[in-house]
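Q: Hi! First time doing this. I have a protein sequence and I read that you can turn it into a structure. Is that right? Here it is:
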Amino acid sequence: MQFKHIIGQEAVKQRLIGTVKDNRVSHAQLLLGPEGSGSLAIAVAYAQYLSCEDKQPYDSCGVCSSCRKYEKLVHPDLHFSYPFFAKDKNDTALSFIEQWREAFLANPYLSLDLWRGYLDAENKQANINIAECHQIIKKLSFKPFESAYKVLILWLPEYLEKEGNSLLKIIEEPQPNTLFLLVAQNQDQILNTILSRTQLVKIPPLAYDDIKRDLMENHHQTELAASEIAYLSNGNMTEALSMLKQTGKSFHTLFVQWLRLCYGNKGPEIMAFVDQAAKLGRENQKNFLRYGISFIRECCLLMADAGNLVHLPPQELDTAQKMTNVMNTAMAEAISTELEKAHYHVERNANPKILFLDVSLQIVKVLNFKTLPQGTHYIPN
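A: Yes, that's right. Below is the predicted 3D structure, encoded as structure tokens:
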């Protein structure tokens, strides 16, 4: 994995490359970024750059013996640890290394749900067990075989429970030229004893323009389709790639039609829409509702005179501006809340006809009858 193959995150890349050039590589670093930000891919690219035999100014060479082994994740000085679904108390990450290599090479923007699909998870909970902690200590007690550094990439240290305290000594006093790279998504769930022994590297969500550009250049999406997926993914490349597998369609026309039917309180047409929405399929229903939540958010930005923060194509922007004439912020908040609740229930396999009918009636109450739910958080303009 080379830095050039990672979408965006230029500032983070330059910071990490700078630590190598200045010989300031901290032995334990925590790469903290949300799902889909590319933090795992950045960790692998950083390790590859450290081990490269012919480092270029801004990337590894990609052709030396070390880089070729890193590209296949088979370098003897590269080790991985990650959550898994143990069938036996003696299982470690090495028990699933082939599946891990397959999963990462197929999609460097790996999520726990995608990783679960490569394993026979059944109903087991993911964790990093004590056997894996002992395996880490054993692997890192040796000197590097080929490269200057021996690297351990620990993905999702949030799944280290109290057993993680057994790693404190080796994290604090590792063998020379040993590098720990912890790749996490939620800082609050990491053991404080581990957190205090690492140097924090924050990785932000991906920029809208970076996701849009990659979808157009590498996934052959039209500008309109790339814009909508980048908009819906909200900086999460894992989510954007997942959306590519869904039926390619624009939800804008359908969502605006739904709002107009509710605004006009057109009962028979609303029932026809409910039948249509119920046939979309669960993933498309989730994406449709997610689009609606994002669209209402853009309307709120327009109402707050923050149009410079709005990312909508011209046609959708025109519709959003018209919507602000019939809706205030309190109404927008109420509609957004209903859509968020609907998304929650779709994920949990609610009956789609009953669900979309109920949400439609709630939106009719808001747009047509100007009736807001009770609660002090709905403050009329």
